[in-house]
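The instructor's notes for this session suggest beginning with a concrete chain rather than abstract definitions. Hand out the sequence below and ask the class to guess, before any prediction is shown, which regions might be ordered.
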Amino acid sequence: MRKRKWLWFFLTLAVVDGLFFLWWVTQKKEHRYDDAIIAAATTYGMHPALIKAVVWKESRFDADARGTAQELGLMQIREPAAMEWAEAEKRSGFEHKDLLNPKLNTLAGTWYLRKLLRRYPQTDNPLAYALADYNAGRTHVLRWNKGAASTNSAAFLAAMDYPGTKQYILDVSERFKHYQAEFPVQQAAQR
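After discussion, reveal the predicted structure:
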């Protein structure tokens, strides 16, 4: 009987230890690109929690992530957006593959997301429209934002016929709220 108690004790200890290790690895993974995220957010006047939420959704913090439509890196950026950023920032010699560098990737992705947010100032929640644009593309956003949906984000979400994009918006928005506690307010100033 006494041996069983010790067995249960060590088994419980091993499970708790394993759970702690899993938590520690997850925390380490989620914070390893915080400096690059903060730098990009500061450069482009964005909230670092939003950038981190997009990174979480797009790549789960895998800087080497590659998508099926040739998206690269942490923020899964396609070549046209990457080249637009490089041209706007006057980065000569830039190639799409350079976005496997986490610092460049977060800079380009943050610039692009800021551009998309500025595209929808007339709406009650530009973030929903910008995230839809980031995920599904402008063509689909233009198809969905007719009538009331052109300014009302709830109507916009209801008009979406891509459940994956709707879920993308909800997931990033929820994770954005989650990450806001990690970043001081002074780093969150938006332009």
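Then share the key points. The chain has one domain: 32-188. The first helix runs from residue 2 to 31.
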